[in-house]
Design goal:
- This protein is mainly α.
- The protein contains 3 helices and no strands.
- Helix content is about 75%, strand content about 0%.
- Helix 2 packs across helix 3.
- The chain is globular.
- The model has no long low-confidence stretch (mean pLDDT about 85).
Length: about 55
């Protein structure tokens, strides 16, 4: 389990990884991906509610 603690020490979280992946697939911009990585879960939840087939249906 040391890999999980190393990632946490580096500041990389699940929300950040998901946000960066979503942002890159939508925008193909490293600047947007970095920004969305910082706001992580906020962007992930926003994306889930605003996209067809997301949480809102």
């Amino acid at each position: 389990m040391s890999g999980g603690t190393d990632a946490a020490k580096a500041g990389i979280g699940l929300g950040s990884a998901i946000a960066v992946a979503i942002s890159w697939s939508q925008n193909q911009s490293i600047l947007w991906a970095i920004f969305h990585g910082f706001i992580s879960w906020i962007y992930v939840i926003y994306h889930a509610f605003t996209r067809p087939g997301g949480l809102a249906g």
